[in-house]
Amino acid sequence: MSRLSNRVALVTGASRGIGEAIALRLAEEGAHVAVNYTSERSRPLAEKVKEQIEAMGRKAIVVQADVGSKEQVEAMFQQVQEQLGDVEILVNNAGIAPFEPFMKVSEETWDRTYNTNVKSIFLTSQLAAKSMIQKRYGKIINVLSTASLMVTSPVIPHYQSSKAAAHMLTKGMAIELGRYNININAVGPSTVDTDMCTDFLADPSIRAKEVEANPMKRLGTARQIGDAVVFLASEEAMQVNGHLLMVDGGLTVKAAQPEDHMEH
C-alpha cells in the first residue's frame, strides 16, 4: 500500500546520490516529485531521475535553482505549484562539504557552505510552510549529518558548524510550525557510499578506516537514507517532530574510535 499516494514532494539536490535515492523512494510510495538540480551539467542526471519516476506512473518535473538564492527558490516553487501543485513534502537535501582546514577556509567557501547548507533550508521551508499552514498539513525533512552532533573531520569545520546550525533550525521550526500539523524533522547520515564520496573513499586505507570506525562495520547506502525520509514523510511519523533520526550505524553513539581502550 502506497504511504504517500498523490502527495507532492520537492527534493533539493536530487540529481544524484542521496537526493536521487530519496526522490525515487518517495515516488515508490506514491508521491509526485519535483527533482531540483543546481548546475546545467547536472540536468541530464536530473532528467534520468525524472524518467525513472515517470516509469513508476508518477508525475515528475525537473527544476533548476540555486537553493541559496531567494529569487531562484521563489521561481522554483512557482514552477512546482503550476505543474504539480503545492509542496506537501519538502526534503532539503542539497549540501556541500569542501575540504579545507580552518586556517585555510576562505570567506567564499564559508559563505557558499552556509548558503547551501543553512540558508537554503530557511528559504525553501519558509515558502513551503505558507501553503502547509493553510492546509494544516506538511512534512519538512532536512538531510543533515553525523557532523550535526560531533566533529567528524579536522578539515571541514565550516561544514560541521553549518550542519549543527541546520539541526537547531530544524528544532526551532518544529516548535513554531507544529501547531499547524506540520512535522519538521531531519535525518543524519554517516559516510554514505555515493559519488559525492568517490574521491574520498577511493583510497583503500580511508575506506577501511571508515568501515572500521562504524559499529556496524559497513558504510551506509543512499537508499537507507531514502527509507528514513519516507518514514518521516508518512502518517506513521505523525507524532515525530523536531527529531534528528541518525542513520549512521551507531557512529554518533560512541565517543572513542574502535581501537581506543580495547584489547586486541
Highlighted features:
about 260 residues, alpha/beta, seven-stranded parallel β-sheet, 8 helices, about 15% strand, disordered C terminus
Helix content: 40-55%
Q: Tally of extended strands?
A: 7
Low-confidence stretches: 260-264
The largest sheet has its strands arranged as 3-2-1-4-5-6-7
Q: What would you note in describing this structure?
A:
- The chain has 264 residues and is an alpha/beta fold.
- The protein has helices spanning 17-28, 43-55, 70-83, 107-135, 157-177, 198-201, 204-213, 222-233, and strands at 8-11, 32-37, 60-64, 89-92, 138-143, 182-189, 244-247.
- It has a 7-stranded parallel sheet, sandwiched between helices.
- Helix 3 (70-83) runs parallel beside helix 4.
- The radius of gyration is 18 Å and the shape is globular.
- The model is unreliable at 260-264 (pLDDT under 50).
In short:
By secondary structure, the protein is an alpha/beta fold. Helices cover 44% and strands 14% of the residues. Residues 260-264 have low confidence and may be disordered.
SSE map:
Layout: E1 8-11, H1 17-28, E2 32-37, H2 43-55, E3 60-64, H3 70-83, E4 89-92, H4 107-135, E5 138-143, H5 157-177, E6 182-189, H6 198-201, H7 204-213, H8 222-233, E7 244-247
Parallel strand pairs: 1-2, 1-4, 2-3, 4-5, 5-6, 6-7
Helix pairs in contact: 1-2, 1-8, 3-4, 4-5
